What we know:
By secondary structure, the protein is of the alpha+beta class. Helices cover about 35% and strands about 15% of the residues. The protein has seven helices and nine strands, in the order H-E-E-H-H-E-H-E-H-E-H-E-E-E-H-E. A six-stranded mixed sheet has the order 1-8-7-2-3-4. It has a three-stranded antiparallel sheet with strand order 5-6-9. The two termini are about 15 Å apart.
Amino acid sequence: MSPRKLILMGLSAFALVVIALITGLSASHQPRDAWPTTLELPSTRGLLHADTLSRGEAGHLSVLIPGFTHCPDICPLSLARLQMAWQRLDETSRAHLHPMFLTLDPARDTLPVLSRYLSAFSLPVTGLRLPSQDDTRLEEFTQRLGIQFQRREPEQSHPPEHAQAQALAGEADYMIDHSVAIFVIDEQGRLRDTLPLSQTPAQLADRLTFLLQSVAAAPSSADVATVNTSADTNADAPAMGGA
């Protein structure tokens, strides 16, 4: 990797941290539908829907981080930050909390690739992947959560023979700019909160503990009023970060 590319990636990561620290994220405290009850996502644990990990029991939350395995800095940092928060939680909280990683690059991130990548973290994280030929469902799902992402093609700084060698090797030298946050979803598929990565592990652990207590004390789904899904899902969109 060229020194110029390393410098650009470093500046991108620094800019992301600065943006997150200055602007923060507007947490969505009003639960809204995010994971359709009919949607099943292929994962490293088989097909998942909103209440699979909780087995339909109340008081569970899933914490989802979007990203991709070729990300050089931001995605590992996000998972490491969640891992540090996880280590601060007690056993009861851990049993009711389910970390997930949604790939925004299904063309390169197969389920075996996700499994290998996530095994590097001391965190029971489930990898989620919609097939690469199913871009519509991935876009719809991310829009419901308020996740924004876009593919960024590489700068034309490599000689033609380098690009040709990559093509022959089946590699694609592109990056993905995407929202950087932890998305908290309850067992009814509703988005409960969006946590910025500018928070410390202690702050994240405290917030997750509070949210777990909130859903444990919440009424059953039969008593919950229908959530208005017509709201603009981008109103509280988190900061975009370049990998």
